[in-house]
Structures are given as C-alpha cells and as structure tokens.
From TrEMBL:
Its main location: membrane. Residues 1-26 form the signal peptide. It comes from the Bacteria. The lineage of its organism: Bacteria, Bacillati, Actinomycetota, Actinomycetes, Micromonosporales. One of its GO terms (molecular function) is peptidase activity. It comes from Micromonospora sonneratiae. This is Type VII secretion-associated serine protease mycosin. Pfam families: Peptidase_S8 (PF00082). The keyword Signal applies. Residues 67-326 form the Peptidase S8/S53 domain. Belongs to the peptidase S8 family. InterPro entries: Peptidase_S8/S53_dom, Peptidase_S8/S53_dom_sf, Peptidase_S8_Asp-AS, Peptidase_S8_His-AS, Peptidase_S8_Ser-AS, Peptidase_S8_subtilisin-like, Peptidase_S8_subtilisin-rel, T7SS_pept_S8A_mycosin.
Length: 432
C-alpha cells in the first residue's frame, strides 16, 4: 500500500493541520469499500454567513464572472462529490486517486480536508446556508494524494513526494488552469520542483499554502512548493486582518487570505470551522478562477500579477514578508480595467481655418475695454482730488495759511467712573 510507503519516506512535506471546531454527528460518508481507514464523522450544517465571505464579498464580482469553464485542480485528500453544495452535475470531475493503488477516482474524501478546500473554491449557494464558494461555476478536478494529514496523536503524517509530483503532473495534463496545493514543507524535492515547472509551462497557475510552522516574527525560511518559481504563496489572516501566528513569513508569501476560523464544507453534508494556510490558499485559487473566466486571454503569469496588483492593503504594508502584497480582492481582480464595450472610433481631427475678421474684432473690443478702464480711473481720481481741494481750501483761507497745532494730549486719560451702585436703587421708605 502506498500509505505505508509514504510513511517510510524520510523527507516530509508537512501538510497543513486541520483544526476542527464544530460538533460532529453520527452520520458517515460512503467512500469506495476499504478506501478509508477510520473516516472522520460528518458535521452539522452551519447556516450563518461566514466572516470570510462577508469580508471578501465575491458576489460583487459575479455579474462579471463566476468562474465558468475554468478547471481547478484540488491536489489534496480527495473531494466528496456528494456534498449538497458540490453535487451539481459537472461541478466535481471523477479525478484520480494517486494515494491508493488501482483505478480509484479522486471524488471521495476520508477526512474532509480536500472537501473543505473545494468548497471554498466552488461550493454552490443554497437557500438557508450562508456559506458558498468564491467561484461557484468553476469545475473541480479532485486529485487524491493522501488519506489524512494528521495522525491519531496529532503528528503530521508523511506524504510521498513522488505521489505529490504525479498528482501535479496529472492535473496539468487534464487541462487544469488553476492548481491548488494546500500543503507545505521546508524540503526542496527536485521531483516536486520539476512537476511544478511542468504545470507552469502548461499555463497552469499554481497556488500553494505558505505553511503553519512559524514560531516567531523574524525567522524566514523558504517553504515549498510555495517558494517555487511561478507559484503564488498564500498566508493566513484572521477576522481583524492580523497574521495568523503560525502563518509562515518570507519572500514566498505573495498574498494573504482568510485562514482563521473560516467555514468550510465537510464530507457527507455539513460544515465546520477550520484554521490554517491550507484554507487561505483556496480563496486565492478561486479568485484566480474568476479572473481566468473573465480574462481568458491572460496567461497564468499575467493572472498572478493581476491578483498581486489588485490586493487590498494589509497590516504589513506593501510587499511585506508576512502579508505579501496584501489581502486578495476578488472584485478588483476581476473588474479593474474591465470594459465590456469597445470604445467607438473618434473622428479624424480637421483643423478649421482662422477667421481673421473675428480675430480683428476681438482685438478691437479688447483695446476699447482697456481704454475705457483707464478713462474711468482718471475721472474717478479727478473727482477725489476735487473733493480734497474743496475741503482744504476754506480752512486754509481762515487760518491765512498758517500752520496750526493739535490739541495737547493729557498726561493721563480721564477715567469716567460708573456711579455707585447705591445711587441706582431708590432709597427705601422708612416707617414714620
């Protein structure tokens, strides 16, 4: 079994941990017989609208794009195609299972990790449920590469690099325009690096989780596959826009997205709250699907640049190692510069000949106005001067043109005191 071989591999790709907060029910899924070892139980439905969908508000972009016609590969633990928000015909493809030997499909899930990722990308809106995907008309290609990411004691289980590489190459060969990799590790496996390059060369936009192993706020270590050329690395933030404490930092972080207590679909028919960059990555992958549907002529590299350029500002400022370019913005990514109508052609410019008569008349009118202003100024000055002469001449004659002296200024100004208050009140009558 590949599961045993995977656990024997010395090098590890630490798949991001699934933090489950919701309650479980007794129902169970129905994967192929013997495919799942101790499958996770189902969860209850959550009807409230999640904060991530409120903050990103992808519905604003839906009049322009819902991701139709874009195939998104979810290279993960599989996808439960029977979930009510994923069961629409054509939404989830059969896919392939690279974890177990044989010809099993990828359209089943033992642990809900891949189902949660797929739901964030493309879950259909349904009445009475607030949760939905960012790109509900996108199609999902489930590529199963592991059964579960965490063991019974909470330890990270090993994933065979060859299985991961096979899954990535398969997704590229199937025509996936976006490939979501919700896994991360510090080891640079040449076989995975080559598979990513293979997908990028086939115009697939690869989106990968930045990882959850950060222990401080300064140490930077490259994380793979997020650090590979052509891959968009995604960190996680909470409802306040702050970096999730474990979200890894470094130059491999291109964007951030909701990744703390975000709602995700679970196997069978339910939802649960989850943490991790595993669940931040599909928000970016889904936004890429929206863009690829709205702008089909853009290459994967151009779509990546568009996602980075249209990101909303984050706490770390532009291009920080913790927040990248900022928070992914589905509406701006789709609509910036979007004009569905081609502009009408402008008529050729034909200069009109000068009207010399009109120019001469304008010059004459300007000269007349200037002359009139000067005449008004001269007349007004004459009137003022005549008034001054009329006021001064009689006084000069009376004084026979002798100089006069101004009245002396008293040494101290005379102070007029107010009357005593008693004088303001009539004297009271006395008894006699």
């Amino acid at each position: 079994m590949r599961r045993r071989r995977a656990r024997a591999v010395a090098a590890v790709l630490a798949a991001t941990a699934l933090h489950v907060i919701g309650g479980a029910t007794a129902a169970g899924a129905a994967p192929p017989a013997g495919a799942c070892h101790n499958p996770d139980p189902a969860h209850n439905q959550v009807r409230a609208q999640p904060w991530a969908q409120q903050v990103l508000d992808p519905q604003r972009a839906w009049p322009h794009s819902r991701g139709a016609g874009v195939l998104v590969a979810v290279v993960d633990s599989g996808v439960d195609a029977d979930h009510p928000q994923l069961r629409r015909p054509g939404k989830v493809h059969r896919g392939r299972d690279f974890y177990l030997a044989g010809a099993l499909p990828g359209a089943f899930d033992c642990v809900s990790h891949g189902t949660g990722v797929a739901g964030i990308i493309a879950a259909d809106p349904v009445p009475g449920i607030g949760f939905h995907g960012v790109a509900p008309d996108a199609e999902i290609l489930p590529v199963r590469i592991n059964e579960r990411d965490v063991g019974g004691q909470g330890e990270s289980l090993l994933i065979d690099p060859q299985v991961v590489a096979n899954g990535i190459r398969y997704a590229a060969d199937q025509g996936a325009k976006v490939i979501n990799l919700s896994l991360a590790g510090h080891n640079d496996f040449p076989i995975i690096r080559a598979a990513v390059a293979y997908a990028v060369a086939r115009d697939a936009l690869v989106v990968a989780a930045a990882g959850n192993a950060q222990r401080d706020t300064t140490t930077e270590r490259p994380v793979y596959p997020a650090a590979y050329e052509g891959v968009l690395g995604v960190g996680a933030v909470d409802i306040d826009g702050a970096r999730m404490p474990g979200s890894q930092i470094g130059r491999h972080v291109d964007l951030v997205a909701p990744g703390v207590k975000v709602l995700a679909a679970t196997r069978v028919d339910g939802h649960t709250y989850v943490d991790g960059t595993s669940f931040a990555a599909p928000f970016v992958a889904a936004t890429a699907a929206l863009v690829r549907a709205a702008w089909p002529r853009l290459t994967a590299a151009e779509v990546a640049r568009r996602l980075v350029a249209t990101a909303s500002p984050a706490r770390g400022g532009r291009d920080s190692n913790a927040y990248g370019a900022g928070l992914v913005n589905p509406y701006r990514a789709v609509t910036d510069g979007l004009d569905p109508d081609r502009p009408a052609a402008l008529p050729a410019y034909v200069p009109q000949p000068l009207d010399q008569a009109q120019l001469d008349r304008a010059a004459w009118e300007h000269g007349t106005a200037v002359t009139a202003k000067w005449l008004v100024t001269v007349v007004a000055g004459g009137i003022v001067l005549a008034g001054l002469v009329a006021a001064i001449l009689p006084r000069g004659r009376r004084r026979r043109w002798r100089a006069g002296w101004a009245a002396a200024v008293p040494a101290e100004p005379t102070v007029v005191e107010p009357p005593e208050q008693i004088f303001l009140i009539s004297e009271p009558k006395r008894d006699r």
